Amino acid sequence: MKYYDIHTHQISQEQNENAVFSLDLRAPFKLHPDRLYAAGIHPWYADDKQWEILKKWISHPRIVLVGEAGLDRLALTPPNIQEELFIRQIELSEEAGKPLIIHCVKAWDELLRIRRITHPVMPWIIHGFRGKKQLAEQLLGRGFYLSFGARYHPEALQAAWTAGRLLLETDDNPIHIGCLYREVAEELQITEALLSQTVGSIFIPLITSPVP
């Protein structure tokens, strides 16, 4: 059985895992030909040097997602700088034809406003979603995908499952992806095999033929 991990900061060598590793553009990196990557500028660490690196590498075929990009009202980066950089990464996502994976903390109204004014074609994925059912339904109703890690609200998880836009991730948590799948399958009262099959059917089109 395959495990699909849309966002991780940990390299796995296991053959039954299909994971997207999040690059840190502030440090030297080397792309492995058998791995998948996301590349973007986190709202905590905004600078022009990373932007030049991102533009240089985003067309690489092993980089399948732009991000994690987004908005974080707890970050030290000024909100106007965050928003400007986020919009630039939205534009890059559209130009490159690669989905956007989003970090959003206490900035949901701003995120929805930016989505309205940018009219993106590429899918948007909220990583590490911990919001409640009402917010989940609001985002799902606007076409977002929701990715869940080790902490989540069960009703929000169920909403994403029902909508057919549920993804799973380990992020920087040491939990094994297989343990997360077992826990989520139990929460949803489905088999682990069905969860794997369904998440795979969402994950694979996003990283291969992302235009909806």
TrEMBL record:
Q: Which branch of life, at top level?
A: Bacteria
> What keywords were assigned to this record?
Hydrolase, Metal-binding
Show the Pfam families listed in the entry.
TatD_DNase (PF01026)
Q: Which residues bind a divalent metal cation 1?
A: E68, D171
Q: Which GO terms describe its molecular function?
A: hydrolase activity, acting on ester bonds; metal ion binding
Chain residues that bind a divalent metal cation 2: H103, H127
InterPro entries linked to this entry:
Metal_Hydrolase, TatD-like
Q: Write down any Gene Ontology CC term.
A: cytosol
Metal-binding recorded as keyword:
yes
What PANTHER family does the entry give? D-AMINOACYL-TRNA DEACYLASE, HYDROLASE
What protein is this chain from? Hydrolase TatD
Species of provenance: Tannerella forsythia (Bacteroides forsythus)
